[in-house]
Write a structure and sequence with these properties.
The chain has 171 residues and is mainly α. Helices cover 56% and strands 6% of the residues. A two-stranded antiparallel sheet has the order 1-2. The longest helix has 24 residues. The N and C termini lie far apart (51 Å). The N terminus and C terminus are likely disordered.
């Protein structure tokens, strides 16, 4: 969806269209994702693996089901079962049957997973601080507010929802 820039267009002011906003957001998102990926890769982790460990660490001590885990992850991995299999083989998570519902499988973070998370989280936080450190606090808050505003809310969706076409009543 990125728009191709014409030569010399770096010097002109952006036109301020929604397409320009989307292109800028996509470029920035790709840059930030790549930087986070490189930070985690040094420690043998993917972003999805880090997010799963973080969700399990913040979750209940007995663990989470696959569906609970999926609902806590943004842009959830479509194949979360394989992701959990890889983490289990690395000894970072453990799975067990739910004591009250034998059909449910719970996943919990292991001590090794907790140690890895405790080591990597401050490094990732420091990298994120560096990525946004050039922005004044007020500008950073403005960015957060604008991103929140750009995200559809149920109320905004209702306002934009197609309205039924009135039909003439036969009298």
């Amino acid at each position: 969806m990125e728009r191709v820039r014409k030569s010399g267009s770096q010097d002109r002011q952006p036109s301020g269209t929604p397409a320009d906003a989307l292109a800028g957001l996509e470029r920035t998102t790709e840059y930030l994702r790549r930087e986070i990926h490189l930070t985690l890769r040094v420690h043998g982790m993917t972003t999805a693996q880090y997010n799963v460990l973080q969700a399990l660490h913040c979750g209940p001590p007995e663990g989470l089901t696959c569906s609970e885990l999926g609902s806590r992850l943004s842009g959830a991995d479509p194949d979360i079962t394989r992701l959990l299999d890889r983490l289990a083989k690395q000894g970072l998570v453990r799975r067990h049957r739910h004591t009250q519902d034998r059909r449910a499988v719970l996943t919990e973070i292991t001590e090794e997973g907790t140690h890895l998370l405790a080591f990597v989280a401050p490094l990732l936080d420091a990298r994120i601080q560096t990525l946004f450190g050039h922005m004044a606090e007020g500008r950073l808050q403005l960015l957060i507010d604008l991103l929140d505003e750009a995200m559809p809310t149920p109320k905004r969706n209702e306002e934009r929802a197609p309205q039924p076409v009135p039909t003439a009543k036969a009298g």
